[in-house]
Design a protein that fits this description.
With 156 residues, the chain is mostly helical. It contains six helices and three strands. It has a three-stranded antiparallel sheet with strand order 1-3-2.
């Protein structure tokens, strides 16, 4: 598991040639395949599209950097904190609530992404909840209660 994509994301444009990965939808998806030559033509003729594509590529690079930070973190709490903060920023940047994170992925998916077992993911969520850093009103919803503490945890 190398990434989670959300509404409006562009998958695969930054990769040259054939793709060495696949994608799996976690919920209902509407996708459109656009041939690379069409995208390249739109870049040449529509400056607004070119700017949007550059923004998407920069966001993908940022997501990759955040994922590497997750994997480099020493503790499960630090990995989870980096992950939750990345999703929080994503919500904020999309005009949503930075304090509420809806998780379409399972604990197994999160564990695969963070390099943790499902048991460690569950224990870490419970530990963050007990300490008041997050609330878990549902298994698919995380409410950030103490963003400063989460930032401190992310620093390791």
């Amino acid at each position: 598991m190398i990434s989670f994509y959300f509404l409006g994301d562009l998958i695969g444009y930054c990769c040259a040639g054939s793709h060495t990965f696949s994608a799996q939808a976690l919920n209902k998806v509407r996708a459109r395949r656009i041939p690379r030559h069409v995208v390249n033509q739109m870049v040449e003729t529509r400056p607004g599209f070119a700017r949007r594509l550059l923004k998407l590529a920069a966001e993908e690079l940022s997501m990759t950097r955040e994922h590497l930070m997750c994997l480099a973190a020493k503790s499960a709490e630090a990995r989870m904190a980096v992950f939750l903060l990345a999703l929080s920023r994503r919500n904020r940047d999309a005009g949503g609530d930075a304090g509420r994170i809806d998780l379409p992925m399972t604990r197994v998916d999160i564990g695969d992404y963070l390099g943790l077992t499902i048991e460690t993911v569950s224990r870490t969520f419970s530990k963050l909840k007990r300490s008041g850093v997050i609330a878990l009103p549902r298994t698919t919803t995380v409410m950030i209660r103490d963003a400063e503490a989460l930032e401190d945890l992310a620093q390791g």
